[in-house]
């Protein structure tokens, strides 16, 4: 799936708002933070009653987006926002620094060990894209995933 660039900022900080479940967190821009982000996402989605397949997909997307922000920007921290509505789980990962190029999916060679992350994000997402963050210094990469939430 090709990225879309017109997704609005979610602008929330944890809790429940107008029928939506939401959470926000940040970690230092370190390789070790990627696994911490995955754990946080899994715990929150399980708390919200999201099915295991959707939890697995969300963890993979967060892992790829967090890794890209850590590796390809000069950020001190990486932020993540989660929001669920009736239609989708929105994942946003924001960095603080500029990378030389905009994130894009690319085809990697068979022997390359990296470079497929955004292809995975596109395959798992209903839509994904990139936009400037609210400060104009960093960027936000977002993805909308089906969440498989069980009705209560």
Automatic annotation (TrEMBL):
The keyword tRNA-binding does not apply. Keywords: Kinase, Serine/threonine-protein kinase, Transferase. CDD domains: HATPase_RsbW-like. It comes from the Bacteria. Pfam families: HATPase_c_2. GO terms for molecular function: protein serine/threonine kinase activity. This is Histidine kinase/HSP90-like ATPase domain-containing protein. It comes from Streptomyces cinnamoneus (Streptoverticillium cinnamoneum).
């Amino acid at each position: 799936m090709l990225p879309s660039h017109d997704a609005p900022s979610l602008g929330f900080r944890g809790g429940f708002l107008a029928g939506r479940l939401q959470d926000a967190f940040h970690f230092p821009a370190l390789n070790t933070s990627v696994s911490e982000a995955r754990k946080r996402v899994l715990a929150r989605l399980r708390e919200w009653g999201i099915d295991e397949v959707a939890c697995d997909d969300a963890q993979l997307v967060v892992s790829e987006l967090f890794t890209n922000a850590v590796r390809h920007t000069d950020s001190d921290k990486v932020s993540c926002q989660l929001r669920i509505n009736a239609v989708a789980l929105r994942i946003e990962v924001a960095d603080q620094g500029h990378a030389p190029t905009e994130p894009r999916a690319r085809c990697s060679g068979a022997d390359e060990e990296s470079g497929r992350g955004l292809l995975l994000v596109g395959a798992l997402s209903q839509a994904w894209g990139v936009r400037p963050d609210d400060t104009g210094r960093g960027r936000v990469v977002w993805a909308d995933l089906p969440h498989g939430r069980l009705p209560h």
